[in-house]
Amino acid sequence: MTDSTLLGKHIVVGVSGSIAAYKSADLVRRLRDEGADVRVVMTQGAAEFITPLTLQSLSGHPVAMELLDADQESAMGHIALARWADWVLIAPASADTLARLAQGRGDDLLGALCLATEAPIAVAPAMNNKMWSNSATQDNLNLLRQRSVAVIGPASGDQACGEVGEGRLLEPLEIIAELKQLAVPGRLQGRHVLITAGPTYEPIDPVRFIGNRSSGKMGFALAQAAQEAGANVTLIAGPVHLPTPSGVQRVDVETAAQMREAVQRSVAGSDIFISCAAVADFRPLQTEANKIKKTAGNALELQLEPTVDIVSEVASGDNRPAFIVGFAAETQELIRYARDKLERKKLDMIAANQVGQGQGFGVDENALQVFWSDGEASLPLKQKVQLARDLMTLIIRQFDAKNTTENS
Known about the structure:
By secondary structure, this protein is an alpha/beta fold. The chain is built from 14 helices and 19 strands.
């Protein structure tokens, strides 16, 4: 009996030129047995070892091979596949394919797909043992790992060339077992993750407000990462224009007070609370019923009052989740301010990032310094979707460690 880890997942299987390509047929079949929806992309070299018709029959869909296919590219086929995928799994991944991925080559369909996708990528290498141990191949693998590409295998044993050593493609069931571990790091099935994202707008009058530059992209990426990890995710979003991640329950709010109310309604029963929203620290003491008119030569004075610190309130409340993560967006002294907030607000973890001058807000890339009571980690600059997965892995590890300590 199979579990539900891959059930309903959209998996693009990339097949490259290796004698081990014959195993991709069994891999596709077994992925479908797991309930995954599979599309196959083949390189020209792969078609020398196994026919597209075989993989089409097993996947139930036409096999994609040509980057410049008149039928597919009229709808930007590689972009459509890139957006469709929950995972890209290249098995077998030849030495040449690894090199092309490391170089960022996009002159064939598989390479262009990998450049265009925001889905996580896994490679299952297969090659001669001397090619595997070559420093060029190992350098390429190290570079891919730095970009959060997962490497599955290889195994050691007899090879088609007659030699013995490391470089054999793992068996399909072993690849699927590894993919399940990657797809659900720490296994959040049955857990409820509550996430806030985006800015809040505090009205001055019917047409003006106090707000900030938060785009919500990081919070939405974290919601996607938590859902990929198997969690039941509630996303409380400020006023942003972003698509809701698949499988995530979204609650839209505008003001800090509305976000607080939404959090209070959802926090009971939550296992993890991630306060990623850039909630306004102040709001106008009085909101005008009508638009304030501009009067020549006269200044406008606004009286502001502080808003409730939502994450501090949750951390000190009766319904405190088992694990609370805060965010610190700073323009200076990032480490000192982040550590102070971690302790003062009674958080389990805080993720801090530099903002201003093109950093943090409104951009697709970010970097984070992450702190918890007895450790820290540096997550380098990368796309927020990948960064969110790396942060979620850290959260899951520390959540599991805290649960193990408290229950021992």
